[in-house]
């Protein structure tokens, strides 16, 4: 019986979800599994596999990774083109975020473009993701779920504090090969296996969503989770002034640096 249950669990993809949650937990995130969100089209509750939350004492600067795990034996194909982000605002391709985050980054855009590869986005970006040998569009369904979950998360956070700084990075985790597909200058299809990529996804309406969704293989999970934590920590350091200003405003003070740093546990 135990062997049968184990086969069933493997077939349902639960081991991949558990490994993903474990990787983000070891990287220093607070992890929630089987998280509910409100579908913006149907107003019904739906489930996203994992929500990884960068530790935060005050709740003013919130950095989330919204993760959907897709277990399958079929490979995934990332269709890419060098012109995917041509003329597209990198602030919108970076993450799902509040307007306050976009404004803060825009005010120092040259710094952020230099220090955040996820914002600058060099190299090939996908315009679509497909699952090979599949009759149904599993990739679109997963991407739409990530879009709706990220959008609902940002909306909820904005309702807690005025001017909240919040980002949500949507990520799809797969346990089968990821194939990058590009058209060469000679007009030929070139395929190569990769461990990580991203594609620009639009869902409008609802939600009014247009950002890049990262795709990560199970083999790349531990490394990706660590890099995700570094991005979250770097954002907290770079946006400290904005976070402190909101905190001071909430406390009704012109400035409260000592109190702010003491609460953060890293007084300078």
Map the helices and strands.
Blueprint: H1 2-12, H2 14-26, E1 30-38, E2 45-53, E3 61-70, E4 76-81, H3 90-94, E5 96-97, H4 99-107, H5 109-115, H6 117-120, E6 125-131, H7 138-158, E7 165-174, E8 178-183, E9 189-194, E10 196-203, E11 209-217, H8 221-238, H9 240-251, H10 257-264
Parallel strand pairs: 3-7, 4-8, 7-11
Antiparallel strand pairs: 1-2, 2-3, 4-6, 5-7, 8-9, 10-11
Helix pairs in contact: 2-8
Number of helices: 10
Radius of gyration: 19 Å
Q: How many structural domains can be distinguished in the coordinates?
A: 1
Low-confidence stretches: none
Largest sheet: 7 strands, mixed
Strand percentage: 25-35%
Task: Report how far apart the termini are.
Answer: 58 Å
Q: Work out the helicity level.
A: 40-55%
- Class of secondary structure makeup: alpha/beta
Descriptive overview:
By secondary structure, the chain is an alpha/beta fold. It has one domain. Helices cover 40% and strands 31% of the residues. It is built from 10 helices and 11 strands. Helix 2 crosses helix 8. The mean pLDDT is 88.
List keywords for this structure.
single chain; 268 residues; alpha/beta; 7-stranded mixed beta sheet; 4-stranded mixed beta sheet; 10 helices; 11 strands; 40% helix
Write a compact overview of the structure shown.
It contains ten helices and eleven strands. With 268 residues, it is an alpha/beta fold.
């Amino acid at each position: 019986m135990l062997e049968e249950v184990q086969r069933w669990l493997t077939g349902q993809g639960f081991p991949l979800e558990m490994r993903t949650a474990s990787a983000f937990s070891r990287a220093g995130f607070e992890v929630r599994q089987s998280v509910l969100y409100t579908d913006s089209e149907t107003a019904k509750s739906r489930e996203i596999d994992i929500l990884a939350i960068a530790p935060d004492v005050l709740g003013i600067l919130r950095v989330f990774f919204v993760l959907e795990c897709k277990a399958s034996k079929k490979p995934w194909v990332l269709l890419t083109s060098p012109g995917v982000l041509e003329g597209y605002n990198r602030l919108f391709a970076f993450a799902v975020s509040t307007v306050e985050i976009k404004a803060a980054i825009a005010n120092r855009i040259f710094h952020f473009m230099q220090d955040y590869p996820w914002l600058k986005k060099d190299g090939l970006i996908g315009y679509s993701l497909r699952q090979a040998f599949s009759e149904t569009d599993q990739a679109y369904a997963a991407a739409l779920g990530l879009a709706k979950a990220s959008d609902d998360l940002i909306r909820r956070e904005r309702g807690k504090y005025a001017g909240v700084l919040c980002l949500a990075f949507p990520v799809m985790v797969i346990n089968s090969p990821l194939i990058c597909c590009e058209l060469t200058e000679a007009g030929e299809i070139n395929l190569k296996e990769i461990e990580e990529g991203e594609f620009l996804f639009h869902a409008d309406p609802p939600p009014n969503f247009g950002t890049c969704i990262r795709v990560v293989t199970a083999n790349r999970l531990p490394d990706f989770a660590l890099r995700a934590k570094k991005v979250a920590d770097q954002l907290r350091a770079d946006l400290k002034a904005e976070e402190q200003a909101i905190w001071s405003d909430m406390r009704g003070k012109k400035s409260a640096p000592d109190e702010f740093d003491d609460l953060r546990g890293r007084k300078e």
